[in-house]
Amino acid sequence: MFPVRSLLPASLLSAFACAALLTACGTSGTTTSGTSSTSIKDALYFPSSNIPVAYLGEIYTASIQVAGGIGPYSVRLASGKLPDGLTLNGSTLSGKPSKAGLYTFTVEASDASLSTKAQSMSLTVADLPPLSLALSLPASEIRGETRIPLTVTAPRGMRAFRLQWALPAGVTVTRIAPTDTRAVAYWKMTGGTLTLDMGFRTGVASGDRLALVTVKPSKPVTLQNPVMGYNALAADGTVVQTLAMPGAAPATLPSGSSAPTVPVQPSSDQSDSGQPSSDQPGVLPALPSTLPGQSTLPGQPVLPGQTLPPSGSQTPPASPLPIVPAPPVNGSGT
């Protein structure tokens, strides 16, 4: 019998010898075999040194991102000073900044393998910008019912507002839903203009989504540059911000008293479906400071011109105009 070696070409024998040598010595980097792969872990690092701007007197939360290494990670303040009113807990920077300025500090991250990485960061604490209510309109054409978020920027203690929006021809509002249980909303459509009143049990934060406004077009339309105005009130009734609609008076709530903070039952002059039974002229009613079955809540003032029911009454004051109460997003009553 001939030996196997004599049947193999010399070049093939050299290839086998190289492969055996590489196997004995080992490799580094990434290797792939079939569907499996092995790679060396990246070193610990910070994906970004940018931190979102904080606003004076506003609740702030930001996360310091860490990557690479072997989790879990821990982050600590290594040097420098955080803005007054902010603290670093784990990788979360939070609090309510009390002094404006540019703050530079260094944070140090460590991972499960005890590797460490330091990073210098800067955080600007700026004066609060003017309050703004905005509708997040879709960029594309709409053809059917579409929900449009209403958000607030820099609420500055806002506890109630009245908003008016002149919708394009052929577009109507079919539903408005507050996005959490802190709010109650009442709305009506008059001649193509939406009027929306909202009151909040507690304060809202910058960037909060306040409500979803459902609109329905009679034909395909692109919504842009909304013609709107609003008047926002603080808890003591002072005006926080006013934006007048172009060519119209400001969308004002009655002034001189506190903002509404609690809901009421639908007015008795609504139809069984919950829709208005007529479109009489008038103003939206103020929200009472009583819940059905409760006496007047202490420290819950009301808007001017409002008649409160006797203490303990379960009947809210009569509304001068049938109003559509806006249910919460989950569909439950308020």
Question: What characteristics describe this protein?
Answer:
four-stranded mixed β-sheet, Immunoglobulin-like, six-stranded antiparallel β-sheet, 5% helix
Write the topology of this structure.
Elements: H1 10-25, E1 31-33, E2 36-38, E3 54-55, E4 60-63, E5 74-80, E6 86-89, E7 92-95, E8 101-110, E9 116-126, E10 132-135, E11 146-153, E12 158-166, E13 171-178, E14 183-190, E15 193-200, E16 209-217, E17 227-234, E18 239-243, E19 324-326
Explain this structure to me?
It contains one helix and 19 strands. Mean pLDDT is 72; it is low at 4-8, 18-39, 255-325 and 327-334. The N and C termini lie far apart (95 Å). The longest helix is centred in the first third of the chain and has 16 residues, at 10-25. Among the domains are: 54-126, Immunoglobulin-like, CATH 2.60.40; 132-265 and 320-326, Immunoglobulin-like. It is mostly beta strands and 334 residues long. The strands form five sheets. The protein has a six-stranded antiparallel β-sheet with strand order 18-17-12-15-14-19, with no helix packed on it. Strands 3-9-8-5 form a four-stranded mixed β-sheet, with no helix packed on it. The protein has one helix at residues 10-25, and strands at residues 31-33, 36-38, 54-55, 60-63, 74-80, 86-89, 92-95, 101-110, 116-126, 132-135, 146-153, 158-166, 171-178, 183-190, 193-200, 209-217, 227-234, 239-243, 324-326. Strand 6 and strand 7 form a beta hairpin.
